[in-house]
From TrEMBL, chain A:
This is Putative tricarboxylic transport membrane protein. Keywords: Membrane, Transmembrane, Transmembrane helix. The keyword Transmembrane helix applies. InterPro entries: DUF112_TM (IPR002823). PANTHER family: TRICARBOXYLIC TRANSPORT PROTEIN.
From TrEMBL, chain B:
It holds the Pfam family TctB. Keywords: Membrane, Transmembrane, Transmembrane helix. The chain crosses the membrane at residues 17-34, 46-68, 80-100, 106-122, 127-148. The keyword Lipoprotein does not apply. InterPro entries: DUF1468 (IPR009936). Residues 20-153 form the DUF1468 domain. The keyword rRNA processing does not apply. This is Tripartite tricarboxylate transporter TctB family protein.
Length: 500, 171
């Protein structure tokens, strides 16, 4: 009964309902406008909402997340420019459909299937999270340490072409997270005698700089890209189409949940894997893939929204981000005094059920806003970059100032913004930096606890790791991922093992 | 997928220098990490930063060595493709905005920033830019200052007095 009360909380309160609707609406536009990312929007929102009641802030941010993942598909279909990385696969068949004059139908179908995917993700979250959480209570410090490493490693390897660059970015994030007084011994770390650094570098300033400023600076390279306009007719999809594609949508939704739940993977990977699944399993598509196959539109859209629910599983139960947005979310929860991890579900089960209810509500708003206002939408996404980019800078600077009403946070944000610009320019992924910052204290403190438990003996730690089934599994996964990214595997073992 | 330690096939202008600076920066951070508690214990406050900075040195060295091997992209110049004038000018505008934000206040500095940046990037008539900047500023101010109650620097504009006199008009 309690669970249901918390589930329905955001449905029954007019303010929470309104904020979720507003968040979803904004999210759709943020996700759709190329150059604005959900991660950027959520990072900026944290700075504006940190003084709010946690429920209000969460409603707005959950709405932005859910709407943003869906919104990316709109510009992918209309302009062949994915508004978000999770919509890259959508553009492959969505844009050809639009070119055939079926833009409205493509948007309608992608909306319905996104909502189906969203619901599958939420149901799996509601069913699986309590079990995962109970299991996670038995975790030892060494397991948490390995989870931290796993989270950073997976993103490091997935967000760029080069593992070395990803690892560098992750390690840099870990170091940024250690700046300030050590929480266990109060020793100064990287403070250079500056008292202002005792509290460390504000992660929100790092986030806004890395995602807001650096991304907007990059957009300046593409100021002259012309916008293509599309004709929009029928939007509500045919019932026969919904029935026909429902099995594929459910299959790819499950792919989305599983991929989303893996630390370090998000909607983009889920969508690409779902597209690949649709391509392999659809024997005789009416229209070939890449030329406007509806299967190629539905699969990634169902999967990327299902990945949202999936990404919440490790976030709420283990405190490990599923992707860059959930990393920012974890930061937001910490700022609001919540501690995501196995104890969250035990100590504050209301937060879990509140989040599940809120996600469900946001998903319903995706359906409502997704099927309406498309003509107005197509006008707004054509907002010139010359106006949009200065606004992003303005919001980023004001957002950084609003954290502590201190100009120092603006300097940090600008420094990380410029550094992030060059990192992006030279192929360094910026996502792992944020993950590193978020996972730094988890990894550091649990490493020290683990080694103290073994009285400083690395060999004992190693032996105990191998003797515990859970620790051994985590250790094996880390080793496997590391090996799979090295030339030993890619150049030598893989060609030998998978020779046709 | 060619997911190797470095799959960058070509090198952009300035990439080699950037990677070299990362190596130097990593070595400096390693030295700073060593200064926290040396190599005393594995559970010391400096152990984790030492390990992370060692990883940074290793990763940055691999990246730097790869840039030594990879050929430069033909026809690409640093000032045109990596730090074009548009980016450098906007960076300067942001810097100036950040400097004047506290002294001039949110309203004046943001309006000036929006006007100059939009005029520079969008290049329409001054009247058009003025109205767009003003409209954007009003929307941002209402949403963040009045609705979200975010504290913004007042500077030389007596904002609180103006707001309270507007409120008193309503009473």
């Amino acid at each position: 009964m309690d669970a249901f009360t918390y589930f329905a909380m955001s449905w029954l309160s007019p303010e929470l309902l309104g904020l979720t609707a507003l968040g979803t609406f904004l999210g759709i536009y943020v996700g759709a406008i190329p150059g604005l990312s959900v991660t950027m929007a959520v990072s900026i929102l944290i700075s504006f909402t940190f003084s709010w009641d946690v429920n209000y802030a969460l409603c707005l941010m959950v709405g932005v997340y859910m709407g943003g993942v869906y919104g990316g598909s709109r510009t992918a279909i209309l302009l062949n420019i994915p508004g978000a990385p999770s919509a890259i696969a959508t553009a492959l068949d969505g844009y050809p459909l639009a070119k055939k004059g079926l833009a409205g139908e493509a948007i309608g179908l992608s909306t319905v299937m996104s909502v189906v995917g969203g619901f599958v993700g939420i149901i799996v979250l509601a069913l699986a999270a309590p079990t995962v959480s109970e299991f996670a209570i038995t975790f030892q410090p060494r397991d948490y340490m390995m989870l931290g490493i796993l989270g950073i490693m997976l993103v490091g390897s997935l967000s760029g072409n080069s593992l070395a660059r990803g690892i560098f970015a992750g390690a840099l994030g870990l170091l940024i997270g250690t700046v300030g007084l050590d929480p266990m011994t109060a020793d100064e770390r990287f403070t250079f005698g500056v008292i202002e650094l005792w509290d460390g570098i504000n992660p929100v300033a790092v986030m806004i700089g890395m995602f807001g400023i650096s991304e907007a600076l990059h957009q300046l390279h593409h100021m002259n890209k012309a916008v293509v306009k599309q004709k929009i007719a029928r939007i509500i999809p045919k019932w026969s189409d919904i029935k026909k594609y429902m099995p594929l949508s459910l299959q790819t939704s499950f792919i989305g949940v599983i991929v989303g739940a893996l630390p370090g993977t998000g909607g983009d990977i889920a969508a690409l894997m779902a597209y690949d699944h649709a391509k392999r399993t659809t024997k005789n598509p009416k229209v070939p893939f890449g030329q406007g196959a509806k299967e190629g539109l539905i699969a990634p859209e169902a999967a990327n929204n299902a990945a949202v629910g999936g990404a919440y599983i490790p976030m709420l139960t283990l405190g490990i981000p599923g992707d860059a947005v959930t990393a920012v979310f974890i930061g937001a929860l910490f700022i609001h005094g919540l501690n995501p991890g196995p104890l969250l579900l035990l100590e504050q089960p209301h937060m879990f059920w509140f989040t599940v209810g809120n996600l469900t509500l946001a998903n319903i708003f995706v359906l409502i806003f997704g099927l309406t206002g498309i003509k107005l939408f197509s006008k707004i996404v054509e907002c010139p970059k010359g106006i949009l980019i200065p606004l992003i800078f303005l919001l980023s600077i004001v957002g950084a100032y609003a954290i502590n009403n201190a100009i120092i946070d603006i300097w940090w944000m600008l420094a990380f913004g410029v550094f992030g610009y060059f990192m992006r320019l030279y192929g360094f992924p910026v996502g792992p930096v944020i993950l590193g910052v978020i996972l730094s204290s988890l990894t550091d403190e649990n490493w020290r606890r683990a080694i103290l438990t073994e009285r400083g003996s690395v060999s004992d730690l190693f032996i105990n790791t191998l003797q515990s089934p859970l620790s051994a599994t985590l250790f094996s996964i880390i080793v496997l991922i590391l090996v799979s990214q090295t030339p030993l595997w890619t150049k030598w073992l893989k060609p030998k093992l998978f020779r046709r | 997928m060619s997911s190797q330690f470095s799959a960058q096939k070509t090198r952009k202008p300035g990439e080699r220098l950037f990677c070299f600076l990362l190596v130097l920066g990593s070595v400096y951070i390693f030295w700073q990490a060593y200064n926290i508690s040396g190599f005393s214990e594995l559970s010391s406050p400096g152990a984790f930063p030492l390990a992370a900075s060692a990883v940074m040195i290793l990763a940055s060295c691999i990246t730097f060595l790869n840039t030594l091997k990879s050929p430069a992209v033909e026809g690409m110049r640093f000032k045109d493709h990596c730090l074009p004038p548009i980016v450098a000018i906007v960076m300067t505008l942001i810097l100036v905005y950040s400097v004047i934000l506290e002294s001039l206040g949110f309203i004046l500095s943001s309006f000036a920033f929006l006007f100059v940046t939009i005029q520079f990037l969008y290049r329409r008539s001054i009247l058009y830019t003025l109205s767009i900047s003003l409209l954007a500023l009003i929307v941002v101010y209402i949403i963040f200052r009045l609705v979200f109650q975010v504290v913004l620097p007042e500077g030389i504009v007596p904002e609180r007095e103006i707001l309270s006199s507007i409120k008193s008009l309503w009473r």
